[in-house]
Amino acid sequence: MAQKTVPQDRLTGPLRRQSVKKNVAAIHVSGKLTLLQRKLSNVLLLNAYDSLITKPKHQIDARTLCLMVGYNSNDMDTLKQSLRSLAETTAEWDMLDTEGRQEWGVSSLLSYAKLKAGICEYAYSPALAEKLHDPKVFALINLNIQRRFTSGHALALYENCYRFVRTGSTGWWPIDLFRRLMGVDGSEYYESFKHLNAKVIKPAVNEVNKTSNILLVPEFRKMGRQVTEVRFRIRENPQLAMLDIDDGEGVRQGVVYHRLVAVGVSDRLARQWIAEHDEDYVREKLDYLDGRSGVESPVRYLTAALKGDYRDAPKAEPVAEPGPQGPERDAELSRRRQARAAQMARVQTLVAGRSPTQRDADKRLFVARVRDAGDRADFARNGWSSAANLKAIVAFWEEMEPGAFDGV
């Protein structure tokens, strides 16, 4: 499967949130999800979380979804297969209700999913949506950490252990339950504890300890010579603890947030702007504000700049190659300037038609392709108006929207 690497920066809108509140009851998932399918499940939940119980269905741009999970942006067949697997996989919960009565339930992870016109639409059953959104009992699935995992077993182990970090231990799990949580139940090979320990437990523990914000130590209980139960001692990983930052604190530690507050933007408005726009876009408008003198109300000016996408006019790239002289040369230069201006205008139109989340993914996908450090720096300063990257920008958008520059 072809994959593209997405830089590990924060995302925007609902997808900026770095942690998914994942109800512990819904973590007990049957079926054998691959690493990418497990990541897909978490990203879909993150995208839908704010409206889980207020909206019956949710949407996300299919290409953005592919890039976030690690698929090739045009690999719709793999995305379809993964969505099919989530719809065929069940989540089971067994917990006490508000009156202390035992409640058991089962539901497919997704009640339906469909792809149409480049949009992925999906839904959860009402019962599962209620459990996923329950703020009383949840585990934090940190997407910054999730992206670091390369093994589905390791991510599954992390998901099932992290919710016990405050108690320091998972408690004893029967080996059969552990096989189910790891997605290896039904395999004759893993009926042997020797194989289960060598191929699943040890590699998964090593990756969790190396990759995540917790450290695990497995312990085993035997009946005679046979291992019957397993538990994991858990403590925080001091070297990676900074990855576990809640939403508001993560935003407040950013340079863009501090620059907004410094010019008089309130905490709430600063976080709202960063949530609605990507940080690069807000930084660009702050840079634009810094270049203006005599601004009486920076907050009001920034509000207009963000809404109107204020920017300095792009500077034309000097033409060094020899060409026609006199009037012919002037006409050729004029034609080139007009062509470049038309291309940049078309790019801005394409960008304007994308949602904040899509714009963020577009930028990250483009930057991942830029190898030259100087070109990356120019793009960081000027965004899609980067003169140094114009050819690459046009090629990128032509790939994203075939025929977009026809007639330009």
UniProtKB/TrEMBL annotation:
* Gene Ontology BP term (one): DNA replication initiation
- Where is the region Disordered? 312-338
Domain (Initiator Rep protein WH1): give its ranges. 20-161
Q: Which InterPro entries match?
A: Initiator_Rep_WH1, WH-like_DNA-bd_sf, WH_DNA-bd_sf
Recorded GO molecular functions are:
DNA-directed DNA polymerase activity
Give the record's family classification.
Answer: Belongs to the initiator RepB protein family.
Q: What is this protein called?
A: Initiator Rep protein WH1 domain-containing protein
